[in-house]
Amino acid sequence: DSGVTQTPKHLITATGQRVTLRCSPRSGDLSVYWYQQSLDQGLQFLIQYYNGEERAKGNILERFSAQQFPDLHSELNLSSLELGDSALYFCASKTSGLYEQYFGPGTRLTVT
Amino acid sequence: GEDVEQSLFLSVREGDSSVINCTYTDSSSTYLYWYKQEPGAGLQLLTYIFSNMDMKQDQRLTVLLNKKDKHLSLRIADTQTGDSAIYFCAESYSGGGADGLTFGKGTHLIIQP
Q: How many angstroms separate the Cα of A41 from the Cα of each of A44, B3, B5, B60?
């Protein structure tokens, strides 16, 4: 158990819908990262937050957005969903000054 | 752009050593990582190495880094059936605190009895 929690574990929704994925980082970790794992694209970095502020963007679509709240949990919002958005979405967190990113168990999103 | 390459499959006999290889292109990479993913599970951090190191050993795991050739390898000694998983190589560039990881496609390690 990495200490990073993600909810829900599974999500099934229809094209055109909007969903919110939630992540709670390890206690005390200020950095949160979101990644997408799909068969086509592999594991891709989406976005990073540090203490509530966006720090870096990767291959995140404009239909996707994220935020980190004062209690440090983070949410990834996916809108206008397409079949190709079906994937595993991972959250990771990191302690300031250290270099290890610890991953949560992931949310499996299926778009039908 | 950044790219991390790994071979897709490696088959070894139980008890032998496994060597999983990775090449990366970003010469500014600061840290290189190995993650393990078992079926239906998340990513488990195995080990990482700073780019100014040549080698790191941790129990059955040995990481070798050839910075000149941008080649990273993970050696698993005495491979067991529990080592069967997908192994991902990843790199990060720690500039300004922006350190999202770039992953390879993963190497499926298959253990033969």
A: 7, 13, 13, 31
